[in-house]
Write a structure and sequence with these properties.
The protein has eight helices and two strands; from the N terminus they run βααβαααααα. It is mainly alpha-helical. The protein folds into two domains: 54 residues, Arc Repressor Mutant, subunit A (Orthogonal Bundle); 78 residues, no CATH class. A two-stranded antiparallel ribbon has the order 1-2. Helix 1 packs across helix 2 and helix 5 packs antiparallel against helix 7. The radius of gyration is 22 Å and the shape is elongated.
Length: 188
């Protein structure tokens, strides 16, 4: 089940501009421009609160959509109304097809996968000290210690990058093919 809109797991989590640019599919320059225009909040240390930034970005996109002029003329006759309804039905069917193909994802699914990914990253990184402490206890040089820590960090990042694939969780109908597994183990 996707998380609630104000799920505290992603609120308060500081991320870099690169993470935000990847999540919203924009360049870091564009993200800087959005921050300087007050569209998305930036923290004093130059990092971004993940939850607040995603929420602000979503509100910004909603506002842009609402500001678009209404393409429908003031009065339509019955034939124009039928044609408009048919066009809307075609567009809806096209969107549903894109979802089924895995080319388009529902907002609640994106929210779920982002919060799951963040939780997995956090959990994996928090295990690093426990894993490396016994291995570095007898080491004499900083180089050896740094190499062990770097191997563990790289291992954590590799596992995370290989395990996160939201498109693989969709079956041919566009639904969650692992819904039972997801309910039993939400952090995957």
């Amino acid at each position: 089940m996707p998380p609630r809109r104000n799920d505290p797991k992603i609120f308060g989590m500081e991320v870099s501009i690169e993470v935000i640019s990847q999540l919203i599919n924009r360049t870091t320059r564009h993200v800087n421009r959005l921050a300087s225009n007050g569209v998305i909040p930036v923290m004093d240390n130059g990092r971004y609160d993940l939850g607040k930034t995603i929420q602000a970005w979503s509100e910004y996109q909603d506002k842009k959509i609402k500001q678009r002029p209404d393409p429908r003329p003031a009065e339509l006759d019955l034939e124009q109304e039928k044609a408009l309804k048919a066009q809307i039905d075609r567009e809806r069917a096209a969107l549903e097809l894109e979802v089924a193909k895995g080319n388009l994802h529902r907002q609640e699914d994106v929210d779920y996968y982002v919060s799951t990914m963040v939780a997995n990253v956090r959990a994996r990184i928090r295990t690093i000290p426990a894993k490396v402490t016994p291995r570095i206890s007898g080491k004499k040089t900083w180089r050896e210690i740094r190499e062990i820590i770097q191997q563990e960090v790289d291992s954590a990042l590799t596992v995370l990058s290989e395990s996160f694939n939201p498109a693989a969780d969709y079956d041919d109908e566009g639904g969650d093919s692992n819904s039972e597994e997801a309910e039993e183990n939400p952090a995957r």
